[in-house]
Write a structure and sequence with these properties.
This is Cell division protein ZapE. With about 325 residues, the chain is an alpha/beta fold. It has helices spanning about 25-45, 75-85, 95-105, 110-115, 130-145, 175-180, 210-215, 225-235, 240-245, 260-275, 295-300, 305-320; strands at about 65-70, 90-95, 120-125, 150-155, 185-190, 220-225, 250-255, 280-285. Helix 1 (about 25-45) runs parallel beside helix 2 (about 75-85) and helix 5 (about 130-145) packs parallel to helix 6 (about 175-180).
């Protein structure tokens, strides 16, 4: 629970450090609404009254109990979510959707609900439903938290009533999806990917000699063959990918090539997120990082996940290319 805070990339972000695009009014509107949401949390306890009480259970919220930031990748949704977390009073928790499902797995559902129910605010980044089990789990979890008076804020690339589409038979779990949707006030954040405004594709891959030269004698930079890395990731639980790259100042991957296996691709998505969280530059030989996923994968149900990963890896590759 203590580790569930914004990652290093977002340690010091604020609403003031977010730069809304003047051509996208929804960005400034989202900042204003989130400031108000944070101020409301500061004026009231978890029960919605001034102050807090240990003797009275919070009533069920009559309307949406959370904020849901919907928009494409690269519009600054995680920045805004982290800024809200920093401004809001505690106790509070910030984690990705995957991290929170892993928390439930580690503690058990009942203890996880008990611990999270002590929070005024729970922030959930990258809210995505990949399977029916996650749908039922999160519907039940959020319902319990709302009943306890916890406020929730989340980000996603998919509207809450469309979660799960293209990934499983979402119509069979419509009740749970609608229950999730009812908890949130949706804020649309429009715009282009700020990481690549005015830029084109990822940097060209390095030659093998240049890649080894980039690593040099720096023992804070790693060097791995791409296929070996993929094999190793399969043996490590995705919840530990963050620990895998802690203390790493640069990652070199030799022989990168497009992947078509969805399981491998989804592991690489998690790794890309953890590298981006920690601002770890990535240099490669073989194919460029924006060629990592095949066209078939990019046309499938996880398309938005893959595009987010490509956007973040491209930014990290540009960082590695800087002198």
């Amino acid at each position: 629970m203590d580790e569930l805070v914004p990652p290093p990339h977002f340690t010091s972000v604020t609403f003031d450090s977010y730069r809304p695009d003047p051509g996208q009014p929804s960005q400034a509107a989202a900042v204003a609404r989130l400031r108000q949401f944070a101020d409301d949390l500061g004026r009231t306890g978890r029960s919605g009254r001034s102050g807090r009480s240990l003797l009275r259970r919070a009533p069920r919220a009559s309307g949406p109990s959370g904020i849901y930031l919907d928009g494409g990748f690269g519009v600054g949704k995680t920045h805004l979510l982290a800024a809200l977390w920093h401004q809001a009073p505690g106790p509070k928790t910030f984690g990705t959707f995957v991290e929170l499902t892993h928390l439930v797995g580690a503690l058990g559902f009942g203890p996880a609900v008990e611990r999270l129910s002590t929070r005024r605010l729970v922030c959930i980044d990258e809210f995505e439903l990949d399977d029916p089990g996650d749908t039922v789990l999160m519907s039940t979890l959020l319902t319990r938290l709302v009943q306890a008076g916890v406020r929730v804020a989340a980000t996603s690339n998919t509207l809450p009533d469309a979660l799960g589409e293209g990934r499983f038979a979402a119509e069979d779990f419509l009740r749970e999806i609608q229950a999730l949707s009812a908890h949130f006030e949706v804020l649309r954040v429009d715009g282009e990917d700020y990481r690549h405004r005015g830029l084109t594709r990822a940097p060209d891959p390095l030659s093998e000699n240049a890649l080894r030269g980039w690593v040099g004698a720096d023992d804070t930079r790693t060097y791995d063959a791409f296929d070996d890395l993929c094999t190793h990731l399969a043996a490590v639980h995705p919840s530990r990918y963050g620990a895998l790259v802690d203390g790493v100042a640069g990652v070199a991957v030799a022989g990168l090539h497009p992947v078509s296996d969805q399981n491998v691709a989804l592991r690489l998505v998690v790794l890309a997120d953890r590298l981006y969280d920690r601002d770890v530059p990535v240099a490669v030989s073989g194919s460029a990082v924006d060629e990592l996923f095949t066209a078939e994968l990019l046309a499938g149900g996880y398309r938005k996940k893959y595009l987010r990963a490509l956007s973040r890896l491209t930014a990290l590759a540009r960082s590695a290319a800087q002198p």
